[in-house]
Amino acid sequence: MKVIGVDIGGTKTAIGIIDDNNGKVYEKLIIPSKTFTDDKKSLHLIISNILNLSDKNKIKHIGIGVPELINNKGIIKGNYNFNWNNKNLVNYFPKNYKVNVDSDVRCHLRAEKYFGVAKNYKNFAYINIGTGLSYAHFKDKKIYSGAKGYAIHFASSKISLYDWKKNKKISLIPEEYYSGKDLIKIHAIKNKNKKNKILHNVAESLASLIGLLINTIDPDKIVLGGGVIINNIYFKKILIEKIRNFILADEVKKINIKTSKLINNTGLLGAGLLFK
């Protein structure tokens, strides 16, 4: 059936009409996610655009993906990108609409499972490397969301390491160094040798985090997605090469690592699939 899919990103929001049976996108509108400095006003503008497209096409099913922590009841819990903590977006629509909301990365995974490279995968992790870093895990014929709904982050919380031999402590949040925002800054460096050296070091560090995730959840396959991977072929190549160096089990080092082919419609399609 035709549904409205909404992919709210940190910088832009895609709203479109999709067929959740074949993945065809019939119409798509892209607007800034932060038109106003007041996040509440920006949300109301996003909702207004969704309703306009919905009313014009007489579609009442709306799926929304949001780049925030969302619990298993569909309530936003966090304010990483927007000051929307504790908001239930369903309440912003008339009662005759059917609205489902989920984390954007779980929407991305849905798109890959139904229309992407993971169609035949039974146990895989989708890792999004874009504005932020997140993952989702498909196993036992469903997406594992965690006890409360927060099983999406692997690099967003603070890591504190202490070397007691040297009495030295390192404390950082990996996402603040390896996300898309930082890759843009790195690519702006004019000295090619310096830039390549930084990219290799960043790739190695990010690979260690992904390797740790693989060692922890032991998926059968991996799908990489997000703007950083899709738009940076060189970085993607060295990242995949380095990931295998941080996988402990020898038989897992050969894990199949694919990259998304859905390009810019992954989140849009996945949001529309919230009714499947």
Intertermini distance: 10 Å
Write down the CATH topology of the largest domain: Nucleotidyltransferase, domain 5
What is the chain-wise order of helices and strands?
EEEHEEHEEEEEHHHEHHEH
The major sheet is characterized as:
5 strands, mixed
**Radius of gyration in whole Å, from Cα?**
19 Å
Low-confidence runs of at least 5 consecutive residues: none
Describe the overall structure:
- This protein is an alpha/beta fold and 276 residues long.
- The chain has two domains: 2-109 and 265-275, Nucleotidyltransferase, domain 5 (2-Layer Sandwich); 120-260, 2-Layer Sandwich (Nucleotidyltransferase, domain 5).
- It is 33% helix and 25% strand.
- It has eight helices and twelve strands.
- The chain has helices spanning 39-57, 104-115, 175-178, 180-187, 192-217, 227-231, 233-243, 266-272; strands spanning 2-8, 12-19, 25-32, 61-66, 98-103, 124-129, 133-139, 142-144, 159-163, 168-172, 221-225, 256-259.
- Strands 3-2-1-4-5 form a five-stranded mixed β-sheet, with helices on both faces. Strands 8-7-6-11-12 form a five-stranded mixed β-sheet, sandwiched between helices.
What does this entry show, briefly?
The protein contains eight helices and twelve strands. The protein has helices spanning 39-57, 104-115, 175-178, 180-187, 192-217, 227-231, 233-243, 266-272; strands at 2-8, 12-19, 25-32, 61-66, 98-103, 124-129, 133-139, 142-144, 159-163, 168-172, 221-225, 256-259. Helix 2 packs across helix 8.
